[in-house]
Amino acid sequence: MFLFxxxxxxxxxxxxxxxxxxxxxxxxxxxSKWVSILLFLALPIVLTIAVWxxxxxxxxxxxxxxxxxxxxxxxAGCLGFMAxxxxxxxxxxKYVLMFPAIILAVNILEAVIRDxxxxxxxxxVDGVMMIGGPWNIMNGxxxxxxxxxxxxxxxxxxxxxxxxxxIWPDQLWxxxxxxxxxxxAYVYNCVSDHxxxxxAALLISCTxxxxxxxxGAWLQHRAQTLAIWMMFTMSFPMFVGESxxxxxxxxxxxxxxxxxxxxxxxxIAVFVYHVYKITKHKRNPLKVEVYTDLKAYKAIAEQx
Length: 304
What we know:
The chain is mostly helical. 66% of the residues lie in helices and 4% in strands. It has helices at residues 9-31, 33-50, 52-55, 65-86, 98-118, 134-148, 173-190, 195-213, 218-235, 238-241, 253-281, 295-303; strands at residues 122-125, 128-131, 157-158, 166-167. The strands form 2 sheets. The protein has a two-stranded antiparallel ribbon with strand order 1-2. InterPro entries: DUF5692. It holds the Pfam family DUF5692. Keywords: Membrane, Transmembrane, Transmembrane helix.
């Protein structure tokens, strides 16, 4: 196959199990503050002390600086978003409202740095096959454009009702799709043999809820599914790389070129549109929302 080696039926079935499991646990956490505290505070403390030193140590495929930084930054996002959702008055504090944009930008930047780093790597590194090349630079640039086009955090609100979701109306479908393509390209470039699950399934697990379950809450969905996945894969690193369910990348340079080219093209398109909206309506993206005139924005704002 183009992106991956042959996928047996049981791996395809497991892909759907992973997708469904991530969405289910995300929904449970979304609906209950106490489930969230258990998942994103109590459980990581136990795993940090009792599990990860043994499963994610040096030599493991998840024993790199990136995996350790990623799991804690994802957890920091989850806890910060919970504080914004549940601590009275925080959703009205302009400095607190900057946190989602900052943690999102930091997470993207971590991956951009890793893409640039992998450009010079070839062969087995930390138990993962690396094929560095110009595609890493292309996708790193796409990631930087993705950061630049983050906008509208000052318009974040907390939805009414039981779930008290963190709603970001200015974070619309075109930015999310550009992010998804970029992030899949990053995973495919830098941990290619994990990308069947950590790329495709993980990204879809937060995009489906954002488009169909709770619109406007993409970043909340993303942080929670990412944290859940990172805790799982650091506890069971063999699953994505060496278990019977593992699906290996094709390691095709053509595939690497294609996914990174799509990522760069998508993020250039969003960047051009972003600049167009800013200049046309004379909006300062550091002070006001950019897409308030769009139907998709209005629909999210009206619902919340």
